[in-house]
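Hi everyone,

Forwarding the result from last night's run.
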Amino acid sequence: MKALMFGWEFPPHILGGLGTASYGLTKGMAMQPDMDITFIMPKVRGDEDQSFLKIIGASNIPVVWRDVDMPYVEKAVSKYIAPQDYFDLRNHIYADFNYMHTNDLGCIEFSGRYPDNLMEEINNYSITAGVVARTYNFDIIHSHDWLTYPAGIHAKNVLGKPLVIHVHATDFDRSRGNVNPEVYNIEKNGMDYADHIICVSNLTRNTVIKKYHQDPAKVTTVHNAVEPLSSEIMASQPEKSNKDKIVTFLGRITMQKGPEYFVEAAAKVLERSKNIRFVMAGSGDMYEKMVNLVAEKHISDRFHFTGFLKGKAVYDMFKRSDVYIMPSVSEPFGISPLEAMQCGVPSIISKQSGCSEILECAIKTDYWDIDAMADAIHSICTYPAMADFLREEGRNEVNNITWQNAGIKVRNIYNSLM
């Protein structure tokens, strides 16, 4: 089966869980011998792992005819489409060609990030989707998250093949309910056009059904999973403090992730214990606010900010930690606790997270209950037997949550639509 997937990021160049999930799911699905995946993303940098799928950068896809020699582009697409032909094929569905500015090779430039002109890039990404759909033959179309829904809709209209959209989050999660109407419309339109909707948790599934008015029969939960640790990461033994316990928050420092509750809980813990340090690893629009809050709580001497971490640095941070905490206000899934538990780190997660639906060996609290969070942190740091139990049982639990199994569930959805 040939699947055309649209994504926005892919390791090693990721800014959050979307790229991690895209990598894990595609690798898990590639274990099926007859699965052939072509993954489109805005910009390819050349160091992505293509051992189990084909990756094409939208920046390398010519969308207008150029009478020049373009051998490297010919590796991405096998033919070119003259502008008028392309307009006829596109039928002006879900794109504004006024935004389409091409370079000398007839390609649209993409930042490969989340720029200020994000809506323009989403629009242009949809245009390139039409060229890919006319160039290759696919059996199914799969769009990851709202940024790629217009591209999936375009490909569906060109190919006439089923469209699956993968909801990794909704704007209700990202905005704490202060939804951007433009984003909401893109999300809902994608869901309306989709032949099936995959959600990363029952929490997200309920949001899709209730807030976006979707038929429950076409919405399925496929929980995320975790990649097995590489031999390099398993062998890594970063230096760990023998004196102080380390409690870590690792993620985007945004209101969705509840960083202020982590700081509030830290202040409560430090009223009782002085041999604990707190680390906030990540970046985001609430970074400066959290620095100020830490200062207001007079805990700066026990609180550390690392900035954004990725790759091996993430696992080194986990291995230095005695407790991992994810106090998210609304977390569609949350892969980071699984990664922490892989490293043997006792974890505390909010009940408002999708991963709480499948994790039994993690402590669960409401995101707003800073007293419960503080009690859990203090208990893990104080009672070795409790920490040992969570460490061993947690590792055993997540080692059985695999992307291969998630990939089988997605394949079954594909088969039902064919």
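The two ends are 10 Å apart (CA to CA).

Cheers,
N.
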